[in-house]
Write a structure and sequence with these properties.
The complex is a heterotrimer of chains A (706), B (197) and C (330). With 706 residues, chain A is an alpha+beta fold. Chain A is built from 16 helices and 26 strands. Among the domains of chain A are: 181 residues, Aldehyde Oxidoreductase, domain 4 (2-Layer Sandwich), CATH 3.30.365.10; 110 residues, Aldehyde oxidase/xanthine dehydrogenase, molybdopterin binding domain (Aldehyde Oxidoreductase, domain 4, 2-Layer Sandwich), CATH 3.30.365.10. In chain A, strand 7 and strand 8 form a beta hairpin. In chain A, helix 8 runs parallel beside helix 15. Chain A is globular. Chain B is of the alpha+beta class. Chain B has 7 helices and 5 strands, in the order ββαβββαααααα. Chain C folds into 2 domains: 54 residues, Uridine Diphospho-n-acetylenolpyruvylglucosamine Reductase, domain 2 (2-Layer Sandwich), CATH 3.30.43.10; 275 residues, Uridine Diphospho-n-acetylenolpyruvylglucosamine Reductase, domain 3, CATH 3.30.465. Chain C is globular and about 60 Å long. The model of chain C has no long low-confidence stretch (mean pLDDT 96). The chains are: A alpha+beta (706), B alpha+beta (197), C alpha+beta (330). Chains in contact: A-B, A-C, B-C. At the A-B interface, helix 1, helix 11, strand 22 and helix 14 of A face helix 1, helix 4, helix 5, helix 6 and helix 7 of B. Chain C: It comes from Streptantibioticus ferralitis. Chain C: This is Xanthine dehydrogenase family protein subunit M. Chain C: Pfam families: CO_deh_flav_C (PF03450), FAD_binding_5 (PF00941). Chain C: Keywords: Oxidoreductase.
């Protein structure tokens, strides 16, 4: 390396920071566009049924209104795998809030007014929207996620569990959760002949380009998707969402550019969310807490339009040595909004259940919860039998123990008071797999000594643009200011989605590869750059195929201290500590924010967030930010984050694991475990609202004279 | 109506404005100042925070008619506003940020060049610099509203306590950062301003 | 949003006269609730009469030692006022506990009194709601109601009033002044909000076309030792799931005077008169506080998901009165 300071691992400040603090960073509906029109969707007002009539007369009476679209007159789309994108194609309504019509007008207020004036008549059909453990529609899906088996069985769970000295059998529930990125799903769509340009808020321009090409029956090269800046996604923008299809459709019909930003209160129904889960965990152990049998059985739901099956039991195939185990997923199809990805899908709800259960087991066995986890540390990945490429969970637990002051903790339950506050602390482990997806990149050397690197990456706030610049400069062996990385457009070399904590690896790898080869070719040329410059393209598909078989995961440990007000049932987190082992940390500044942001969302999951399915209407009762509470400034205490330096040669050329999601995994369990330590009340269904904690606390107060 | 009001220190006019459209819409769609963000449209998230006659408000809940003859400062004008405040006000009436200037700030694709070179003719305000330096920016969507609110806090209270900061920023939701770096940024801006005095 | 007219007014008679010209006109204060409801289509005024420039923006001491608060005083200014903070601390605390800085900067106290419930069914035009469409039904009773009323509700409506400020004002016997085309009038806050009964759409006793001009707080020495405690799911910036405004005068262990009002339990700020009656003259003890709370809450009617509020309010009464007792005897 020719630079004096290592570029990988340096806390470089965010490259687009200036644009973002001056208000000049352009998001999906921020671009100046001539003759723009505005679209406003009409959500269906029944949970299931047929549209029998669409009366747009009143709406179209306003001269500012350009069009009203519904299944009756909307352009036909080609089929894709994702049925949520077949917008306005059929009179059938699969769930409340699905788009029934769309108003397009020359001003936003005219569009909003027109949408309100459209009369849609329905023939409602009976609906079924409530998930239960014994729902008659439960079935075993073919797989839970690509390549993830639905069920796994090792040894003889039933027999060993039945004979175990210590048995735990508990049911944990996580509610529907909504991503709610601050930027709502939004797009500006413009047609030029058969060429479509969309500024779209998404986590993957290449993926959106491909699906739009399919839907409109056009060659991929005709579609240009630009996502230069994206106001968060957390999974909900991981694939094309219906808003971008509507915007493109409307622009085609009115022959003008169209802006469509979904109103916040429509997001819950149409942009995806985390499904509710009901998880039964049974653990059979000896009195020292060695797990002999573990069953993790998940019940969850999808919609009539399919959707993502939350693979919550998969964590129990990874975390602890259990010679006899059973992990299963059952799903039922309900007339509900279609679930999708939300930060750490599977791991996040799964670890709430598993890590709560481990806490209960520790108490049942009288073993310290950290020691319990250490005792059940596996030597290979329990399900696959593969060696771990690296696993430093125990080191994370030990380091956290020291930093948090865990040894000072009095293990007695409900033993610490400060006036009317009860104080407690809890711990939970974190885990998230290491994913890499095939992507392409190009590196170009200019005759003036500058370098351009192109990759259709998406910077949704993670700092991708910044870290890719570090990776490129490092591989090229040049200072950062000689390298310009371009991301955020499907016109760049195709790349994978900003999801599954895979972005840095999936994009950084081809960037590294292209830059390394470019550097070698320049060296071969004696460092004289040809007049037209020199370009190298890279693709990592083969590199991925050539990888050896390892179980690759990041791990961590989270510690929480809470106070519970015995008068009001209010729980507040006083301290959070996360210690993670996630490979090499490429940019400590942006990485720290990713961990803390994830833990904060985990705090929200523990104490605040959760939607209620309305049985009569089939929608979520909490549809805006006034009723769906994401953490505000005052909810978030001192959060401390550390990481274990991990050298793992089995990952990628940078040695990194993904860090975008692991922060949310385990937080809710750590907090719920702390609430139990503080109060003796075990909450197995999130969130821990005062309404939930008040009755058992009141019972405890009456039982014990204070 | 013909709407006349002051935006970032310069008088602006817009014709055929319906009094009922929101100030946020006027700024974003008529003035070409999309820095103020629309994230909830109901005053819940603070992403559209601007100063109206000096006071932070949610632009999504202000009707255009209400801003007639009044003064608005948006994130695009924050740097100028802070500079003039430091210099003791605008004597000539020719201060402020013109719409053209604000639009010229329009980002080039962010590149790998670090340091002061770049698209900005202006010095950033203390709070803007602190947000970058402290790493308080992630996706950036809540950032403009937070900057306006935080700048007003520091104007009122040069050395706010953590409680003051949390209270002042309680109306600005962020889904990315966990707020820690945002608090750091406000503390940093306060400390730097104190040093400079 | 329906197209509507907008006009600023600068004097009270002009405001009242202008409103009288159009039965579908509405006064616009800070707009933090009204504009939101207009976007949702719940409110559809033909004309907005902007009253924020009216000369009603002052807080003044009255001759008898009370306070007169103009209707267009913003929540921020009310909470910051030194007289309010000194003489009615629970009022300042209540206002600061509501909403966010941005919203408090916009919201006016007149508007605050008239804000509508945040019941999700009320704001959703696709669903029935007796408050919005009389006779259409109340889905909250069978549906989402974890933050709905336990006192004074009816089978027609179980929504709660969202105001924090109103709870403190109720405890302190505030009187609302208004102006109509026929002249000025006054309504004690205790009579300002109508019982729910079978007319949940009729919320206040304010005469049609009346403009709230201000609120008068009578002199109230007991209010100087007062407290507002708000319980909410989020640590800040959330509506109450239960709140209490309390003032207490204790001498020699006996309650000389007590004021108690509850928030987030009824369609209006709930003055706990039964509890006050039981407490006055009796011992200032936790047992007495609990007994008084139980008496007040004996009338509570709960639904499956809001029964926790009974315990919550009982706990709050005991805790806050105990704190005030300690404060008074320090």
């Amino acid at each position: 390396m020719t630079t004096t300071r290592p570029l990988l691992g340096s806390p470089m400040t965010r490259l687009e920071g200036r644009e973002k603090v001056t208000g000049t960073a352009r998001y999906a509906v921020d671009y100046p566009v001539d003759r723009v029109a505005y679209a406003w969707p009409v959500p269906a007002a029944v949970a299931r049924g047929e549209i029998t009539a669409v009366d747009a007369t009143a709406a179209l009476a306003d001269p500012a209104v350009l069009a009203v679209l519904s299944y009756e007159n909307a352009p036909r789309l080609h089929d894709t795998d994702d049925r949520t994108l077949a917008v306005l194609q059929s009179p059938h309504i699969a769930h409340r809030g699905q788009f029934a019509a769309l108003a397009v007008a020359t001003s936003l207020e005219a569009a909003r007014g027109a949408a309100a004036a459209i009369r849609v008549a329905y023939a409602p059909e009976p609906h079924d929207v409530i998930l239960t453990r014994d729902h008659p529609g439960l079935y075993k899906p073919d797989e839970v996620d690509e390549g993830m088996p639905t069920d796994r069985e090792h040894g003889d769970f039933d027999t060993v569990y039945a004979r175990a000295q210590v048995r735990l059998d508990a049911v944990y529930e996580t509610p529907p959760l909504h991503n709610h990125p601050l930027e709502p799903h939004a797009a500006t769509a413009m047609w030029d002949g058969d060429d479509l340009t969309v500024y779209d808020s998404n986590q993957g321009a290449t993926a959106v380009q491909h699906v739009l090409a399919e839907l409109f029956g056009l060659a991929t090269g005709k579609i240009h998707v630009i996502n230069e800046h994206v106001g968060g996604g957390f999974g909900s923008k991981g694939t094309a969402r219906p808003h971008v299809v509507l915007a493109a459709m409307a622009a085609r019909v009115v022959r003008r550019p169209v802006k469509l930003a979904l109103p916040r209160n429509q997001l819950a129904a149409v942009t995806g969310h985390r499904s509710p889960t009901i998880q039964r965990i049974r653990i059979g152990a000896d009195t020292e807490g060695h797990v002999q049998a573990l069953a993790h059985e998940v019940t969850t739901q999808i919609s009539a339009l399919d959707g993502f099956v939350e693979p919550a039991a998969v964590v129990s195939r990874v975390m602890y040595a259990a010679p006899n185990s059973r992990t299963t997923h059952r799903v039922t199809r309900l007339d509900v909004p279609t679930p999708s990805w939300m930060r750490a899908p599977g791991e996040c709800p799964g670890m709430f259940a598993l890590e709560s259960a481990m806490d209960e087991l520790a108490i049942a066995c009288g073993v310290d919860p950290i020691e319990l986890r250490v005792r059940n540390e596996p030597t290979v990945e329990p399900d696959s039998g593969l060696p771990f490429s690296s696993r430093h969970l125990v080191e994370c637990l030990r380091e956290g123990t020291r930093r948090f002051g865990w040894h000072d903790r009095d293990p007695r339950i409900a033993g610490k008071h400060e006036g009317r506050l009860l104080i407690g602390s809890g711990v939970a482990a974190s885990t998230y797999p290491v994913y890499v997806m095939a992507s392409h990149a190009e590196a170009h050397a200019g005759p003036d000594g500058s370098y351009e690197v192109h990759v259709s990456a998406s910077d949704i706030g993670t700092g991708a643009r910044t870290v890719l610049t570090q990776i490129a400069a490092d591989a090229l062996g040049v200072p950062l200011d000689r390298v310009r990385v371009r991301v955020g457009s499907s016109d760049l070399p195709p790349a994978s989605v900003a999801g599954a904590s895979s972005g840095t690896a999936s994009w950084g790898w081809p960037v590294h590869k292209a830059c390394t080869e470019l550097r070698q070719r320049l060296e071969a040329l004696g460092h004289s750059v040809p007049e037209q410059g020199l370009t190298v393209a890279a693709d990592i598909a083969e590199d991925l195929d050539d990888r050896e078989d390892y179980a690759r995961h990041a791990f961590g440990a989270q510690f929480a201290e809470v106070q519970v007000d015995t008068v009001t049932g209010e729980t507040r987190v006083r301290r959070l500590l996360g210690v993670f082992a996630a490979g090499r940390i490429l940019n400590p500044r942006t990485a720290r924010s990713q961990f803390i942001g994830g833990m904060t969302m985990g705090l929200g999951m523990a104490l605040l967030e959760g939607s209620t399915m309305d049985p009569a209407f089939g929608d979520y009762a909490e549809r805006d930010l006034a009723s769906y509470h994401v953490p505000a400034c005052a909810d978030v205490p001192e959060i401390d984050v550390h990481w274990i330096e991990e050298e793992d040669p089995q990952l990628n050329p940078m040695g990194s694991k993904g860090i975008g999601e692991i922060g949310i995994v385990g937080t809710a369990a750590a907090i719920a475990n702390a609430v139990h330590h503080a109060t003796g009340v075990r909450i197995r269904a999130l969130p821990i609202h005062p309404a939930v904690l008040m009755p058992p606390l009141a019972g405890a107060r009456q039982a014990s004279p204070s | 109506m013909r709407l006349t009001f002051t935006v970032n220190g310069r008088q602006q006019e817009a014709d055929d404005v319906w009094e009922g459209e929101s100030l946020l819409y006027v700024l974003r769609e008529r003035m070409g100042l999309p820095g103020s963000k629309n994230a909830c449209e109901q005053g819940e998230c603070g992403s559209c925070t601007v100063r109206l006659d000096g006071v932070p408000v949610c632009a999504c809940l202000v009707a255009a008619g209400q801003v007639q003859d009044r003064e608005v400062v948006t994130v695009e004008g924050l740097a100028d506003y802070a500079r003039q405040r430091a210099e003791g006000g605008c004597g000539t009436g020719a201060c402020g940020t013109s719409l053209d200037d604000a639009k010229r700030w329009q980002s080039k694709p962010a590149d790998g060049r670090t340091g002061e070179a770049g698209a900005f003719p202006q010095q950033l305000s203390a709070i803007q610099r602190a947000f970058i330096d402290a790493g308080a920016v992630q996706c950036g969507f809540c950032t403009p509203g937070l900057l306006v609110a935080a700048d007003e806090l520091l104007e009122r209270n040069a050395s706010p306590s953590d409680e003051d900061i949390r209270e002042a920023l309680s109306g600005n939701l962020c889904r990315c950062t966990g707020y820690e770096k945002i608090l750091d940024a406000v503390r940093l801006a306060a400390a730097r301003t104190e040093e400079a005095v | 949003m329906r197209e509507f007219g907008y006009q600023r007014v600068f004097d009270v008679p002009g405001a009242v006269a202008l409103l009288g010209t159009d039965p579908e006109a509405r006064f616009l204060g800070g707009g933090t609730n009204l504009v939101d409801l207009m976007k949702a289509g719940v409110e559809r005024p033909a004309l907005l009469v902007d009253v924020t420039e009216l000369p009603l923006g002052r807080i003044e001491a009255t001759a008898d030692g009370g306070l007169r608060i103009g209707a267009t005083v913003t929540n921020s200014d009310l909470a910051a006022d030194p007289q309010v903070r000194r003489h009615y601390p629970a009022l300042a605390q209540a206002v600061l506990a509501g909403a966010s800085g941005q919203l408090r900067n916009m919201a006016t106290i007149g508007g605050n009194l008239l804000q509508r419930t945040r019941c999700g069914y009320f704001a959703d035009l696709t669903k029935p709601c007796n408050k919005r469409v009389p006779g259409s039904g109340c889905p909250a009773i069978e549906g989402e109601h974890h933050n709905h009323a336990i006192l004074g509700a009816s089978e027609h409506c179980v929504a709660v009033h969202p105001s924090d400020m109103g709870v403190a004002l109720t405890a302190f016997d505030a009187v609302v002044s208004y102006e109509t085309a026929d002249g000025p009038g006054e309504l004690p806050l205790a009579e300002f909000y109508l019982p729910v009964g079978d007319t949940p759409h009729l919320e206040t006793a304010l005469p049609s076309g009346a403009l709230i001009t201000g609120i008068t707080l009578p002199p109230n020495p007991v209010a100087a030792v007062s407290r507002y405690r708000k319980v909410r799911e989020r640590a800040s910036y959330a509506f109450a799931i239960g709140s209490i405004a309390a003032a207490l005068d204790v001498r020699d262990g006996l309650v000389r005077e007590v004021r108690l009002a509850f928030g987030a339990v009824a369609s209006r700020p709930w003055r706990a008169r039964e509890a006050e009656r039981l407490l006055t003259g009796g011992p200032a003890s936790a047992e007495a506080f609990a007994a008084a709370a139980d008496a007040e809450l004996a009338a509570a009617e709960t639904l499956p998901h809001n029964a926790y509020k009974v315990t919550l309010m009982r706990n709050l009464v005991v805790a806050v009165l105990t704190e005030l007792t300690e404060e008074a005897t320090r």
